[in-house]
Amino acid sequence: MPIIRVEPSRLYRRIADQIRELILAGEFPAGSRLPPERDLAQQFGVSRPSLREALIALEISGFVTVMTGSGIYVRTDFAGAEPSSVPDGGPGPFELIRARHLVESEVAAVAAREATPADIEGLEDAVAQMREEDLRHESREDADRLFHIRLAGATQNSALSLVVQGLWDQGRGRMWEKMQLRMHNAGLRPRWIAEHTAVLDAVRAKDPKAARRAMQAHLGAVEEELNDAWNAAAKGDGLPSPKGEGAAPKDISPPEKTLKVKS
Ligand SMILES: [Zn+2]
Known about the structure:
Elements: H1 11-24, H2 37-44, H3 48-60, E1 64-67, E2 71-74, H4 93-114, H5 117-135, H6 142-153, H7 158-169, H8 174-182, H9 189-204, H10 208-233, H11 256-259
Antiparallel strand pairs: 1-2
Helix pairs in contact: 1-3, 2-3, 3-8, 4-6, 4-7, 4-9, 4-10, 5-6, 5-9, 6-7, 9-10
């Protein structure tokens, strides 16, 4: 008997695989709109961010399409989608930002206690680079990454540096890229620079509480942007179909037990 490789599975992939099976079984027919997000989340017994991550994964693998202002539809050409299970696109963007919220807020507090004058100069330099990127209208993440990595370095704890680097460099797979494309944050850059400046000011003042608060405010704002980007894309979700015909699936509520996430 061959040994089958055991793959650790992320929650969003388990949800996505079940939705994919329901699509393949015709429960959600080609061209139909998926049920409202809140209903699906309730039926699966999962949080809305996890369901959103599953829908992003299904979009990447070609099973559904997000029609701006109309909702999430099963693609009519999904037969050509990736046949096996939904591929692993790295950590989900919502779980990633929640992890960063926890870790980097404490990193900011420790950095406020431990930062050397050279660390503070490094952070000032990163903020200056953000301003230059903004003047050149570049929406790059380089200076942002630099700021967060240097802040982690300012804790003088190499393990914390590793954790933050991992969240930045290994955590940003296809899932994050997909959401990044939706985040039209050019107009938000001045606010975003101010958020980093607030962290820097707190570190300079050696005020751990203020640094923690400033980082929480920054990453809370990023999470809000992620939510806004998703809501803007899928805001028709759950409303009657635009033309009132065909598009909405007939009976889209299979018994609750079929929707529970397998673990
Ligand atoms: Zn940042």
